[in-house]
Design a protein that fits this description.
With 188 residues, the chain is an alpha/beta fold. The chain is built from seven helices and ten strands. The strands form two sheets. A seven-stranded parallel beta sheet has the order 3-2-1-4-7-9-10, with helices on both faces. The longest helix is centred in the N-terminal third of the chain and has 13 residues.
């Protein structure tokens, strides 16, 4: 609940922007996270869409109305209060899909380390989704740009798009763009 309240408006706008990039008939991956939950909320109206997720709450969000066909990876819930599924079952399930896009929630993104997160087991799930995807979209509020966490998801060369808010530092934006990341800004 605490994480969901931080940058709440920015996360909603990022979720709405991300939803505009998703086309009918696509198969997408949504990793666990507060920003990817906002993406799921924005996707509720998409009917001709298949979603693979390791987040129980995202599965519930998408099942709350007639919308995307949603598959949960299965796996273990090992952190109290977290809705993410991890472990061998989740990893194996993801390998059975080809994803048009994966939308990654992260705790950090920078040029040197790429996309990172705190939990090693969760990063492993995200890494497999990245391998199975044709396009990688990071959805992160600007407080995460320039930050690094301990578990690497993927290097900067794998990231196609970053959707963030106008709070992104100019030098960080220029550096990410120099490495081929397309930046989409929301809000002011």
């Amino acid at each position: 609940t605490e994480r969901e309240k931080r940058f709440q408006r920015e996360k909603q706008l990022i979720g709405m922007k991300a939803a505009t990039l998703i086309g009918d008939g696509e198969t997408i991956g949504l990793t666990a996270g507060t920003t990817t939950t906002q993406v799921a909320r924005a996707l509720r109206g998409h009917k001709d869409l298949r979603v693979l997720t390791n987040a129980v709450n995202i599965g519930l969000e998408l099942n709350a109305s007639e919308g995307p066909q949603t598959t949960l990876t299965g796996g273990c819930m090992i952190w109290p209060g977290a809705f993410s599924l991890t472990g061998p079952t989740a990893l194996e399930a993801i390998q059975g899909f080809v994803l048009d896009r994966v939308l990654l929630g992260v705790t950090g993104i920078d040029v040197e380390h790429g996309a990172t997160m705190i939990e090693v087991e969760e990063a492993a799930v995200s890494r497999v989704m990245v391998r199975q995807a044709r396009e990688v979209i990071v959805v992160a509020d600007s407080s995460k740009v320039g930050m690094t966490s301990r578990a690497v998801i993927c290097g900067i060369q794998k990231i196609n798009v970053l959707i963030t808010d106008h709070g992104i530092p100019g030098d960080a934006r220029a550096e990410l763009e120099r490495h081929g990341v397309r930046i989409l800004l929301v809000g002011m």
